[in-house]
Amino acid sequence: MSSEPENRSKSGNLVEVNHLKQYFPVKTGLFSRVWLKAVDDVSFAIKPGETLGLVGESGCGKTTVGRTLLHLYKPTGGEVLFDGVRVDEKNIQEYRKKMQMVFQDPYSSLNPRMTVEDIVGEPLDVHHLYKNKKERRERILELMSLVGLNAEHATRYAHEFSGGQRQRIGIARALAVRPQFIVCDEPVSALDVSIQAQVINMFEDLQQKLGVAYLFIAHDLLVVHHISNRIAVMYLGKIVEIGDADEINNNPIHPYTLSLLSAIPIPDPKTARASKRIVLEGDVPSPMQLTGGCAFHTRCPYATERCKKECPELTDRGDGHMVACFEK
Ligand SMILES: Nc1ncnc2c1ncn2[C@@H]1O[C@H](COP(=O)(O)OP(=O)(O)O)[C@@H](O)[C@H]1O
Ligand SMILES: [Mg+2]
Q: How far is the CA of 142 from the centre of ligand 2 (A)?
């Protein structure tokens, strides 16, 4: 049963996101409201078995991209294609088996009063995958072993486990329906640093074994660089830079990407000094205060009058390294 879908062969993409928008209504008074543009015209594509890293500070819209992609929120605009087929309200149930999500906080995303067996088995039941109890249990044990849990863990409750183990349970649950694509929403951010590497290695091993593709969300560019084939950098609802992971890491162009890497000194041609750090000051502004110019202009050391008024588009700087900046 390995007929490559016809539509994919044209683009080679498993998942394609085109001009995705997610605007949330925010009440500003009794009768007035404004739109909070959490995701504003985001496009990217992911090939089978590939990892696209998505980075940006908290509040930039990363989770909203993941949830809107999976139609957990109805998109305000744009489209999501899976194997070349547009995902919509009518066919989403079918695609729930192909696209799964692993959540940021393993403490709140798993019901503490359910056993591991119940948690991992639930998606099997929802999708009516196993009629036979024995086969169902074998599948659950297989999934647990895939993520490094023992058979005797099956009857224990989620609250009995550590953060790292809970995240393993969450991953086993996501894998239960044999998805081809998983949105991993900061799956290691809530874990101790000592555990993070183990869990990241597990994501990599699983990808090797199962060929699953990831959208891997994190706020730490170094974590994302480690696991990703390509990286997208997001700032206030928009992708400001995207390209090959090594290229983004070694040759970042957008001042925001530079600032995310600012622990490492960078050469700055505009000053006589050999190197300069871009240290971000202040917090991410509210997406409701956007003026129509480049969203980063309020914190950017290179911003000009033009940046306040016009929003730069992503342009190709070579080999698909795309950057949205007038000055760099
Ligand atoms: N359901 C919602 N309703 C209204 N605003 C939301 C909702 N979810 C997220 N937001 C807002 O959208 C923006 C992006 O949030 P989020 O996607 O969670 O960012 P990130 O995951 O990068 O931290 C934030 O300003 C957040 O407050
Ligand atoms: Mg988030």
A: 30
Q: Rounded distance, CA 260 to CA 115, Å? A: 40
- The confidence band for 1, taking pLDDT boundaries of 50, 70 and 90, is very low
Tens of pLDDT, residue by residue over 148-161, are: 999 999 999 988 99
The three-point CA angle 282-283-286 to 5° equals: 130
CB-ligand 1 contact for 23 (6 Å cutoff): no
Reply yes or no on whether the pLDDT at 248 is more than 70. Answer: yes
Q: Is the CB of 64 under 6 A from ligand 1?
A: yes
Ligand 1: which residue has its CA nearest to atom 3? 24
State whether residue 322 is helix, strand or coil: strand
Q: Across residues 256-264, what is the average pLDDT?
A: 79
For the chain, what's the residue count? 328
How many whole angstroms separate alpha carbon 110 and alpha carbon 265?
41
38 lines ligand 1 (CB under 6 A): yes
- Report which bound ligand comes closest to the CA of 40: 1
Burial class, 99, CB count within 10 angstroms (exposed 0-12 / middle 13-18 / buried 19+): buried
Q: What is the largest CA-CA distance in the chain?
A: 72
The overall average pLDDT reported for the chain is 89
60 lines ligand 1 (CB under 6 A): yes
- In the block, tokens 């930039």 appear at 60
List the residue whose alpha carbon is closest to atom 1 of ligand 1: 24
C-beta of 61 in contact with ligand 1 (< 6 A): yes
Topology adopted by domain 13-98+179-249: Rossmann fold (3.40.50)
Q: Which atom of ligand 1 is nearest to the CA of 24?
A: 4
At residue 269, does pLDDT exceed 60? no
Residue-wise pLDDT tens digits, 49-74: 999 999 999 999 999 999 999 999 99
Ligand nearest to the CA of 67: 1
Query: Measured between alpha carbons, how far is residue 128 from residues 123, 132, 136, 164 in Å?
Result: 8, 10, 10, 29
Q: Is the pTM above the cut of 0.85?
A: yes
